[in-house]
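Appendix C reproduces, verbatim, an entry submitted by the partner laboratory led by Prof. M.T., so that reviewers can inspect both the input and the predicted structure.
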Amino acid sequence: MQYRKTMHGERSPFILLAILLLAVILLGLLYMMREDDAGATRISLQPGDIRIAGKGAEEDGDTVVIKQGGHYLIEGTLLNGQIYVDADDDEVILLELSGVDISNPSKAVIYVEKAERTEILLAAGTDNTIQSGTEEDAAIYADCDFLLTGEGLLRVLSGLNNGIQSKAGLQIDGGTIEVTAANNGIKGKDFVAISGGSLQIEAGDRGVQAKYEMEITGGDLKIEAKEGLEANQVMIKGGTMDITAGDDGINANGGEDKQKKNPSKDVVETMPNLTICGGSIYIDAEGDGLDSNGNLFIEGGEIVIDGPTKDDDGPLDFGKENDGICIIKGGTVLAIGSSGMAETFDERSEQCSFRCILDIPYEAGSEIVITDAAGKELYRHTAAKKGASVVFSSPELILGESYTLRVGEQTLEVRQDSNSVR
């Protein structure tokens, strides 16, 4: 399916259709499971002993080969093994993990070569571990649309490459998922959609990445990575996020690469958009906190950024070189950090904001307190690192009113005489 440009403020039709289809399939599969769980093909794994009861799967040494659509209930331990799916391209595969511990030092542990859609269901109350040392693809890899759901625990360890990857769309709506990956933690191509679950990700490169679109509407994410979230179109409508990034916290990428003489094969030329409409987001970034190579829109939610200490990055960054804009019309934002590249919201914004550059940098541990003229506290935060700039926006800021910003021992008076004071 060809990728189509996402308009600001709209749910992508591509993601909406994909999620709807996945939901219908999931409900159908879960209904069949409740009606006839005995009809599932049961796969019992033991070192040197794979036992299969049911149709659609066969043993090939230390590999379980699945050749047709259906429900496969997998349990047990397998060393140097693999679950390999090669079904028809109109088949739907349901892999129910019910207490597995599978490792493979040289291949993906779960590899879906061909199917229409694949779902991994984490059985409630189970602990599942997938460990891979493959240099190609990921510990869990699917060449088709992929859904991860359930109420169990999934632990993914990928020593050389990605944790969980789909070459099409990837959706997560449940489960407790812990990923440790040398490269990307979770990676999709067409889209990544997260609507539920608890995710804890440690990654050497990106925590969660999609080439085209990413939409987060729920879930609890804790990420430590070079970059937290990255896609060309990033839409956040809900969920709780705690991101520690060695570079950018959240990045809407692309755009400027089309101007390069020799762009990479991964270039997306569509204008990048980073849109936040809801959720609770905390970012501790050594690079840019929120970074869009195009437009940056804030419409809701609560966002706190402990940004960079170096002046070649900023807590907020948008693509002026691509005629991008930075607009806020809802939510609460506190973005602090270095002052050299400290950008702020456009005066065309519907909600008031102010930026203050401090003469004396503050230190880590300094309290930042914002109060109105009556002494009412609007926001309080303790800085994680040193810095020299503060950007604040809140629905409580009113045009024409005055506010007090206290940073450590410094006190500044701010007169909100325009929508964007700077």
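The radius of gyration is 24 Å. Additional entries are available on request from the coordinating office.
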